Amino acid sequence: EQPATDLDDAGRPQIQDDLKLVFQDQPDQLSKTQLIVQHFDPSARVRLLPGLDGQPGTADFDDNVNGVIDDASELGATFSDDLCVVEASQEPASQIKPSMVLQRGAYVATQARITQPAGHPDRILVLFEGLDNSWSFVLDR
Predict the structure, then answer these.
(1) How far apart are the C-alpha atoms of 102 and 46, rounded to whole Å?
(2) I want to staple 70 with a disulfide (CB 3.0 to 4.6 A). Which of 39, 43, 48, 55 is the partner?
């Protein structure tokens, strides 16, 4: 028997029941846990953007020691606040400058699905974000 390819109404309660067992001693944490069904989008863009300081690399610092502070070549520098984001193929590309597409193809939320690409199973991303800690794991389908 083949496993279901979609997280149907019957599958979601089973996962939620399993999580209730995990959090039986900390039920308040269950409400902070999200289930996100994802699928592989071969045309999704994995993009590198400046972080909250708005500058590539670390603001006001010559990350790559080329004599120029905060130039585009510092994007993604070690210890910077720069961000790596995934843009589903049907989403408009980020207009933030500078930015750089690192790769094409990534898992995106199922709500953003256009077609079901062959060769990549759906997966479920389980996220927890508390005030002082966070964790996540992936269940392949």
Answers:
(1) 6
(2) 55
Please report, as a single letter, which amino acid is at residue 3. Answer: P
* pLDDT in the model for residue 50: 94
What lies within 8 Å, CB to CB, of 56 at 6+ separation is 50, 63, 70, 71, 72, 73, 74, 75, 76, 77, 80, 82, 98
The residue ranges of the chain whose pLDDT is under 70 are 1-24, 26-27, 29-32, 111-121, 141
pLDDT for residue 12: 53
Tokens read off for 105: 């193809």
Structure tokens at 77: 């520098």
Question: In the prediction, which pLDDT does 129 show?
Answer: 77
How far, CA to CA in Å, does 125 sit from each of 17, 89, 115, 140?
Answer: 16, 19, 19, 9
Look up residue 19 and give its DSSP letter. H
pTM for this structure?
0.63
Cα distances (Å, whole numbers) of residue 119 to 40, 115, 141: 9, 12, 12
